[in-house]
Amino acid sequence: MKRPLLLGFLVLFTFLGFAQNGRPILIDSSSAYDIRNHGYFYEDKGLKATIDSLVQLKEKGKLTELTPYRTFNKGFSQSYWWIVFDVQNTLNEPVNLFFNERSNSVNRLQLFKVDSTGKITPMALTGDHFKFHSRPVNYHNYLYPIKLKAHEKASYFLWADKRGQNMTMPLGLAKDVDLVHGEIPFYTMFGIFVGIYLFAIIFNLFLFVSLRDVIHIYYALYVICVLLFNLEDEGLGFQWIYPNVPYLQDYLRSIIAFISSALLVQIMLLFINQNSSNSRFYHLINGYKYFCYALTLLPLYLLFVNSNMVLEKVNFFASNLLALLTVIILILNTTERILKGYKLAWYYLITMLILLLGILNYVFNSLGITSFYIFNTTGLVVGLTVEIIFLSFALTQRYNFLKKETKILQQQKTKLEIALVDDVFEAQENERRRLAQDLHDDLGGTLSAIKLNVTAFKSNIVQLPAENHAFYQQTINMIESACENLREISHNLMPKNLEKNGLINTLTEQLAELNQTGDITFEFVHDIEQAISPDIELTIYRIAKELINNVIKHAVATKASLQIISSEEQIVMMCEDNGLGFNTNTSNDGIGLANIKLRVNHLKGVFSLESNEMGTSISIFIPR
């Protein structure tokens, strides 16, 4: 009875042992082999398993088969993990292989070989918690050389400590030369990505120097973060930048993720011109930006102060979910600006939708939900690269958009300024007209009445002494002078002959009067080929009067000339005198010159002044 029972257990044990040794990787002329279709795994939740206990578990058939054609991915891990696979060299010659663990981020890692006799041979203990040169092969992935004799059979046990990280392990087994050749496409693609990042950094720094727009500094910093993150994700940062600083790789990606999220928010605020006046979410999103910066303290604390599994878990999920949350928040804010009519926000929305796809792929892989990789890497690399290309293009479109918008605003400002000056000039002319009418009707009438009343007393002063006759005549002369001055003031305020006689005849008449009564001889030259509109004619008249008054008051001249030439293209005015002149470099413009320049600018003309001891010359060019 005991013998059949013992025989039955032996058969069962043999069957189980065969079951977990019946999927060996057959080494033949192929260049690479897929461990996923042949291997097993074991989760050591108690953190106590050893290589001896794993050998026993394998013999008892208590290991779990790997899922064929799917990357081993269990999400966030607090356990130790074992990967087991058998190999058999079917060739008549020795073969050199490389076992490749491609996750690039493992706390501790060690491979054990168990040959057909049961002999256990441990290989190098390595990982991120050791210096880079502790690796069996100085490579950005974890490579273990495997040598098999002709027809040799062996089992390999990989122990991995990824506590506090995502337990994803893309595994590879290939012949040494073929593995190197197989990495060429990866390095080519990654080199293209890095080239794009470097170009974007240099391009934005150049734009900042040229345009002094701070958005390009933030974007250059963001691209630098993206470059560092991708170097980290491929293990190249540890290899090239800080090979003698273990543990840093555990937390550097989290730090970069938090800073990148904050920079993305800042770039969005500047790109879509979001502020408190045009968005009800502005203060919330601005506070979220500083929250992202503050989160960098968590991985820094874990790196320098204390590594705690609870905080490790918080850091892991925060760094992954925050990136996803940030992109969703940016999409919502950008959508709000689009709904309010800001068309440029469409570029940023498309950019964030592209990035969202890459982040979803990365986060789902990190959480163990999916195991889909693009170009032998995470979709985040591809998403970030496409995002950088598109957003760099969008920044150039933003410049063109802002340039066009600035031009429109400048045109609107010019129109408002012109309208304002028009209103000022119109108000001045209306006030001049009112004053001229009031002086003529009221004060002029009063002076005329006074003159009539005083004249009425002329017959009564015949018998008065001679000195009273002189006083009477003096009074009459003063009243007449006042009336004459009043007529002149009214005439200057609103020349009644301008509309009736026109600009040239009015100025000819006034200069003729000045030549008869003044000490300066004025010459008036004119050539009007095309009629001038009444509004411009009035402005030119005001300019001419200011020029004439300046000569009379300040030039100390004996001769002066005024020229007005009108053609189809422009109106040219020139005023010259032979006075004392003045220093144009030190002399401030008086009210007269300021008024002239204001009116010339209003007509979009050009004002030119030359003055020396031989006299002064003013030229004015007004476009038609």
Automatic annotation (TrEMBL):
List the GO terms this entry assigns under cellular component, sorted alphabetically.
membrane
Q: What is its EC number?
A: 2.7.13.3
Q: Which residues form a coiled coil?
A: none
> Has UniProt tagged this entry with the keyword ATP-binding?
yes
Reactions performed catalytically = ATP + protein L-histidine = ADP + protein N-phospho-L-histidine
PROSITE patterns in the record: HIS_KIN
Q: Which molecular function GO terms apply here? A: ATP binding; phosphorelay sensor kinase activity; protein dimerization activity
Keywords assigned by UniProt?
A: ATP-binding, Kinase, Membrane, Nucleotide-binding, Phosphoprotein, Transferase, Transmembrane, Transmembrane helix, Two-component regulatory system
Give all residue intervals belonging to the Histidine kinase domain: 438-624
Stretches that traverse the bilayer: 186-207, 214-231, 251-272, 284-304, 316-333, 345-364, 370-395
Q: InterPro entries in the record, alphabetically?
A: 7TMR_DISM_rcpt_extracell_dom1, 7TMR_DISM_rcpt_extracell_dom2, HATPase_C_sf, HATPase_dom, His_kinase_dom, Sensor_HK_TwoCompSys, Sig_transdc_His_kin_sub3_dim/P
PANTHER family, A to Z: NITRATE/NITRITE SENSOR PROTEIN NARX-RELATED (PTHR24421), NITRATE_NITRITE SENSOR PROTEIN NARQ (PTHR24421:SF10)
Protein name as it appears in the record: histidine kinase
- The organism of origin for this protein: Pedobacter chitinilyticus
Q: What is the lineage of its organism?
A: Bacteria, Pseudomonadati, Bacteroidota, Sphingobacteriia, Sphingobacteriales
